[in-house]
Amino acid sequence: MHVLIVEDDDLVGDGLKAGLEALGQTTDWVRTAATADTALELAHFDVVVLDLGLPDQDGMALLERWRRQGREIPVLILTARDAVPDRVAGLEAGADDYLAKPFDLSELVARLHSLVRRASGRAINLIQYGPLRFDPAKLEVSLDDRPVSLSRRELAVLQALLQNPGRLLTPGQLQDHVYGWSEGVESNAVAVHVHNLRRKLGGDLIETVRGLGYRIRKLSP
């Protein structure tokens, strides 16, 4: 799961980024509405955690603008404004969920997984692909009911592909899921992770479309 954190408070932003990454998620943290716009233009994210008290634009106005622009990415508002009218206004502005500060990290993560799950059209966290099972919340993978050990970055690549069945993802999009949009990496890093996934999960799982990217291969009827 690739999370964009939009939060101007250094203590909250740093703690949220560290907490999510400790739980195996890929995160990018920005402090202003302008930088959040740039991030969404340059990279693919699964979900946004949005504070309302931003220095250059109110978060509510930012969210309303995103929705007018047709951005459908799931957004969870995380703010100290916890009165009922604030919650109602946030949801009416286009938020998919609303959580007041202070918050429990485990609850936040559960809510983020729920938003990503709904956006992918799934009713449960577990993703089943033939004999392969992947639980994004627990970051657990099994093949033929046997657990498979994957690195955090291999899990990120697998999750991105399984959450987009049949969709071609470019190396750049997968790199965003694994490393974040602002981190420089080796040009062949994604290819290495795909190679390792094929070695551990079978060579038929991931299809390479030469010069374009990767996708989960369709199951035989």
Helices and strands, with pairings:
Blueprint: E1 2-6, H1 10-22, E2 26-30, H2 33-42, E3 47-50, H3 59-68, E4 75-79, H4 84-92, E5 97-100, H5 105-119, E6 127-129, E7 132-135, E8 140-143, E9 146-148, H6 152-162, H7 171-179, H8 189-201, E10 206-209, E11 213-216
Parallel strand pairs: 1-2, 1-3, 3-4, 4-5
Antiparallel strand pairs: 6-7, 7-8, 8-9, 10-11
Structure, explained:
33% of the residues are buried. It contains 8 helices and 11 strands. It has a 5-stranded parallel β-sheet with strand order 2-1-3-4-5, sandwiched between helices. The chain has a 4-stranded antiparallel β-sheet with strand order 6-7-8-9, with helices on one face. It is α/β, with parallel strands linked by helices and 221 residues long.
Please name the defining characteristics of this protein.
single chain, 4-stranded antiparallel sheet, alpha/beta, globular, 20% strand, 41% helix, 221 residues, 5-stranded parallel sheet
In brief:
This protein has 221 residues and is an alpha/beta fold. It has helices at 10-22, 33-42, 59-68, 84-92, 105-119, 152-162, 171-179, 189-201, and strands at residues 2-6, 26-30, 47-50, 75-79, 97-100, 127-129, 132-135, 140-143, 146-148, 206-209, 213-216. It contains 8 helices and 11 strands.
